[in-house]
Amino acid sequence: MLIAAWNVNSITVRLPRLIAWLDAVRPDVLCLQETKIDDARFPALDLAAAGYAAHYAGQKTYNGVALLVREGLAVTDVYVGMPGYADEQKRVIAATVAGIRVVGVYVPNGQAVGSDKYAYKLEWLAALAGMLRDERARHPQLAVGGDFNIAPDDRDVHDPAAWAGQVLVSDPERAAFRALLATGLVDSFRLFDQPPATYSWWDYRMLAFPKNRGLRIDHILLSPPLAQRCVASRIDRNARKGSKPSDHAPVFVELREAAPES
DNA sequence: ATGGCAATGTTTCATTGA
Predict the structure, then answer these.
(1) Distance, CA of A113 to CA of A24 (rounded, Å)
(2) CA–C1' gap, A227 and B17, in angstroms
(3) Residues A75, A78, A108, A131, CA torsion sign
(4) Which nucleotide's C1' atom has the smallest distance to the CA of A151?
(5) Which pLDDT score, from 0 to 100, does residue A114 have?
């Protein structure tokens, strides 16, 4: 089973690349972020033609999340947002897919340390920790994928000295990320030896991608039963190449089949 | 070989992203 997450930075602009990627990789579930589109305009028919059922919660211009599920897989209990946390911004969508609880998240960017948006980011992350604690209690098999807008440690930053203390790497954000893990999840990427300087986002400016000046801010977190089944966690850097890429690359995990009940 | 900001809408610039 393949579970993936990708900040597409406008599903309208990225649709051809998205469909090509779905055709090539055939993930079972893909969590999308920054779809930037009203639900009424979501390209569900195009995705259905590509073999994917879409569940989505969007808005014009900003944010917007979706779960794409390969046809034939059972989907139940779709939920948008976080219980008990009213938020106009569409940033969370959850569903149970073939027995696995999948939560897609688009964590606020935070703009700058000390800004109102930074305060919102930290408050939002605290709410997410609460939601994930509850999800974990209900669903032993839990995967949380998306754009977390946090580089968990300095290995995830191309130039730690230049980024020190900045938004995306600040200590309170990293502490908030650890608090997510403390609900009973692991960063799937770190289950494996990984090549150094592996990132998931590169600025569009200043040749950041060809120079590999990036950050690893997109993640898939797994509960222990899924971590045990995880045989790979990768970032598809190739998807950042070529014309009109998203500034984020897709991240994905491969899970081997569950052991039969004894 | 990758590419030198991009996407959106109240569009001809401002806002946001990370």
Answers:
(1) 39
(2) 32
(3) negative
(4) B18
(5) 95
